[in-house]
Amino acid sequence: MDMRFAMASLLLVVSCSNSDSTSGSGSVTQSVGPEGAVIEVSGAKVTIPKGALADTKQITIRESTEKAPEGYVVLSKVFRCEPAGTDFAQPVTMEMPFTDDGKPSRLFWTTGSDPAFKDVGGEKRGNVMVATVMHFSGGFVGHTP
Cβ(49)–Cβ(60) under 8 Å? Predict the structure, then answer.
């Protein structure tokens, strides 16, 4: 019985988390339903509150190797939240670590239909930017020059 429990626990850990060692980026996938969840990867934390989702979905948060577009001073990694375009009934809290350069910084996030990054604000808490979003796509912390 202990062996079955150990194997089931191992299977649960493997199915809920993985790391992409070929690109150097981290990734976490887990099922999230109406009860909500907190998902952490590469220092970033995504808090999906209770009631934000009506049904259970496979949610992936990954550190992307893509570069942010020109015209921004980028202070964090770019993070992607999937499935892209997922809308929420409650605001989802994004927390992204960043390197503070002493200038006012913001969280920039794409919309489902527009790939351009939009300023969604944020509150600096040490070297972490905290902001809320209503849908999944991707973003980073930075500012314009």
Answer: no
For residue 124, the enclosing domain spans 2-143
Q: Is the peptide bond before 83 cis (omega within 30 degrees of 0)?
A: yes
Domain holding 80: CATH number? 2.60.220.30
Bridge partners (DSSP) listed for residue 64: 78
Region label for 112, one of left (φ > 0), alpha (ψ between -120 and 50) or beta (otherwise): alpha
Read off the tokens for 135: 């849908």
Q: Does the pTM of the predicted model rise above 0.70? A: yes
pLDDT in tens, the chain (145 residues): 433 333 333 333 333 333 332 233 599 999 999 999 999 999 999 999 999 999 999 999 999 888 878 899 999 999 999 999 899 999 999 999 999 999 999 999 987 666 788 999 999 999 999 999 999 999 999 999 8
The count of domains in the chain is 1
- Residues 2, 113: Cα–Cα separation, whole Å: 49
CB-hemisphere CA count at 13 Å for 129?
A: 28
- The answer to whether the beta carbons of residues 47 and 38 sit under 8 Å apart is yes
